[in-house]
Amino acid sequence: MSSPLQVRKAVIPAAGLGTRFLPATKSVPKEMLPVIDRPAIQIVVEEAVAAGIDDILIITSPYKKVLEDHFDRAFELEARLAAKGKTAEVDALRAIGEQAQIHFVRQGEPMGLGHAVSMARRHVGDDPFAVMLPDDIMVDGGVLLRGMIASLQDTGASVVALKEFPFSEISAYGCAAHEPATAGSPLVKITGLVEKPKAEQAPSNLAVMGRYVFTPAIFEHLAQIRPGVGGEIQLTDAMDRLLRADGMSGFVFSEGRYDIGQKQDFLRATVELAMEHPELGADFTQFLTDLAKQRLS
Ligand code: UTP
């Protein structure tokens, strides 16, 4: 029999407007922007699978049908590739949609991240589950998410990913107040959450990143939240209630995250991953080295 704290499901909210990446995201969803040759959403799904998740619900919008197409079969393309003997390519295409059960639900209107997560209630049911924001891609083979799941299994409490930032940058993020850390442990007990604090008012330099593992109690709290500024239902408000009711852990990590919702970090992801790419890496690194020498001389 499976343990009641097994985490098999992930929810990926992908119904936002992507305004920071206009005009690219006018007709192409932000989640479909490629990092080299894989769309961001595929990288996030692969991370979930690497962490042991086999059921993924993507919250999408009426304008993002292409997300559903990406995880569906492409019979004509597969047949044409097969006719040319390109069986490895056919297998790779099929694997995109077969690596997990992938489901979709539409958020008719972008009423906030909290609202998007609440749309997963029926699908998730009474089990703990992960929430993965596709703006954040992790290049860590699922290590962070696996660690967060193990923490929920140990303590029974929800877990949020935290990363250290200089105080001068903390006002761009949700910030966690916490009890002192235990040496050698990535876990901290969170005592409060403050949305986008000024540097001098920030309770710590740990910012909330786009990976969460929640108990299903989060849905009760989301149902109590009234829309705030701009008519949006904020996930942070529900997390604040959950934290006070049941406690919450923070899982501090440092490596492997790219915020591809920001142009600068999107470029960093592309360049760093290209340098490590098994086929392109050596040539691309040489190209960059030559280019840098030329431009800096
Ligand atoms: P963001 O506000 O960072 O993303 O939401 P956005 O709205 O897509 O992009 P910008 O800020 O306008 O450039 C964080 C995550 O929550 C999802 C987004 O798709 C993103 O993954 N989201 C946000 C929803 O699914 N629904 C919403 O109503 C709002």
Overview of the structural elements:
It is built from 11 helices and 13 strands. With 297 residues, the protein is α/β, with parallel strands linked by helices. The chain has a single domain, classed as Spore Coat Polysaccharide Biosynthesis Protein SpsA, Chain A (Alpha-Beta Complex). A hairpin with a 2-residue loop joins strand 2 and strand 3. Helix 3 runs antiparallel to helix 4 and helix 10 packs across helix 11. 39% of the residues are buried. The model has no long low-confidence stretch (mean pLDDT 94). The site of uridine 5'-triphosphate (UTP) has 21 residues, from helix 5.
Features:
297 residues, alpha/beta, Spore Coat Polysaccharide Biosynthesis Protein SpsA, Chain A, 9-stranded mixed β-sheet, two-stranded antiparallel sheet, 37% helix, 22% strand, globular, binds uridine 5'-triphosphate
Could you give a short description of this structure?
With 297 residues, the chain is α/β, with parallel strands linked by helices. It has helices at residues 40-50, 65-70, 75-83, 87-98, 113-118, 121-124, 143-155, 217-224, 235-246, 263-276, 281-296; strands at residues 9-13, 34-35, 38-39, 55-60, 101-106, 129-132, 136-138, 158-164, 174-178, 187-195, 206-214, 248-252, 257-259. The radius of gyration is 20 Å and the shape is globular.
